[in-house]
């Protein structure tokens, strides 16, 4: 992906974007989720540190991103799945909403309608003044 300094500012400064992070008990970031507007759709991206995978962090981040996509008024939320990424494929196969898949050029695009997300996934309870961490999940 090249030097993160070359693209990080453009990613984080994109108008309407949502960026979430999960910290462990020592305040180290162990997972991130991004939702970036793309016309009437929003692209979601997740990254969970290897040692923290299979603990539900990706699922929880994806659920929160889904709520942001609903509130943002986007019609679809989508993401790219790289070959061999079986963990995200498993998460999406067990999602509470219909997820559609299209394989092209070695990668797979997965997407869900935000109207389906709004029906299937109850809103999260927001705790004011509270910073969630990995230990809370």
Description of the molecule:
The protein is an alpha+beta fold. Helices cover 26% and strands 31% of the residues. It has 4 helices and 6 strands. A 6-stranded mixed β-sheet has the order 1-2-3-4-6-5. The two termini are 30 Å apart. Mean pLDDT is 83; it is low at 125-137.
Q: Could you list some keywords that capture this structure?
A:
six-stranded mixed sheet, alpha+beta, 137 residues, globular, disordered C terminus
The secondary-structure element order is HEEEHEHEEH
The percent range for strand residues is 25-35%
How many helix segments?
Answer: 4
Low-confidence stretches: 125-137
Shape: globular
What is the terminal separation in angstroms? 30 Å
Give the neighbour order of strands across the main sheet: 1-2-3-4-6-5
Average per-residue pLDDT, rounded, comes to 83
Give the biggest beta sheet. 6 strands, mixed
Strand-pairing-aware structural class = alpha+beta
State the helical fraction: 25-40%
Topology, element by element:
Blueprint: H1 8-12, E1 18-23, E2 29-38, E3 41-48, H2 57-72, E4 76-81, H3 86-93, E5 100-104, E6 107-113, H4 114-120
In brief:
By secondary structure, the protein is α+β, with helices and mostly antiparallel strands. Helix content is 26%, strand content 31%.
């Amino acid at each position: 992906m090249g030097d993160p300094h070359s693209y990080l500012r453009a990613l984080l400064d994109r108008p309407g974007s949502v960026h979430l992070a999960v910290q462990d008990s020592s305040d180290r970031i162990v997972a991130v989720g991004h939702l970036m507007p793309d016309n009437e759709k929003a692209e979601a991206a997740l990254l969970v540190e290897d040692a923290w995978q299979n603990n539900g962090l990706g699922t929880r981040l994806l659920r929160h991103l889904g709520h942001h996509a609903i509130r943002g008024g986007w019609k679809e939320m989508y993401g790219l799945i790289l070959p061999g990424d079986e963990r995200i494929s498993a998460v999406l196969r067990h999602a509470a909403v219909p997820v559609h898949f299209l394989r092209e050029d070695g990668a797979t695009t997965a997407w869900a309608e935000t109207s389906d997300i709004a029906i299937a996934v109850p809103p999260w309870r927001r705790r004011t003044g509270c910073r969630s961490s990995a230990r809370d999940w």
